[in-house]
Amino acid sequence: MVERIEDLNLPNTVVTRLMKEALPADVKISNESRTALTRATSVFVLYLTSAATDVADKKKQKTLTVDHVLAGLEEIEFESFIKPLKNDLENYRKLVKNKKDKKGDKPETEEAMEEDTPADM
Questions:
Q1: Helix (H) or strand (E) segment spanning residue 31
Q2: d(CA 71, CA 82)
Q3: For 15-73, how does the pLDDT look when each residue is reduced to its tens digit (9 = 90+)?
Q4: Is the pTM of this model over 0.85?
Q5: Separation between Cα atoms, residue 35 and residue 41, nearest integer Å
Q6: How far is Cα 39 from Cα 47, in angstroms, rounded to an integer?
Q7: 20, 75, 29, 81: which is closest to 52 by C-alpha?
Q8: Where does the record place the region Disordered (predicted)?
Q9: What residue ranges in 51-100 does DSSP mark as E strands?
Q10: Is 69 inside a domain boundary?
């Protein structure tokens, strides 16, 4: 699996950015608290992953899905996270769909535009 327990920690920069977004601008974060929160978030992710894996195993599925993660949240008694997560997931899916739709829309070529334009204009 991993050689060192530190390899399981989320990147400090990511956790620091999240902390700064959650706190008022005038609040400073000590290095010690940053380290503690980085480790705590990593433990939470591992705990949730374990619970989601248990759900998948019970269903005899090898791939973790969103449904497994949501059921895992319920299993570890974090039900209050489910609704906001579902909302964020819906927004993410809309964003991805919009990007795909935009990518699929090809701009008309000059020739196609000329064919659509009446000659006597």
A1: helix 31-58
A2: 9
A3: 889 999 999 999 998 999 988 998 899 899 999 999 999 999 999 999 999 999 999 99
A4: no
A5: 10
A6: 12
A7: 75
A8: 96-121
A9: none
A10: yes
* CA 103 – CA 101 distance, rounded (Å): 5
Tokens (6 digits) for 94: 């809309």
**Upper half-sphere CA count for residue 67 (Cβ side, 13 Å):** 7
| CATH, residue 49 | 1.10.20.10
pLDDT at 99: 87
Is residue 56 a part of any domain in this protein?
A: yes
Structural domain containing residue 69:
5-77
**Structure-block tokens of residue 85:** 């997560």
pLDDT digit string, tens, across residues 11-23: 888 888 999 999 9
Pairwise CA distance, residues 27 & 31, whole Å: 13
- Identify residue 77 by its one-letter amino acid code: E
**Which pair of tokens denotes residue 74?**
């319920």
What pLDDT sits at residue 121? 42
Residue that the structure tokens 């949240």 belong to? 73
Residue 61: predicted pLDDT: 95
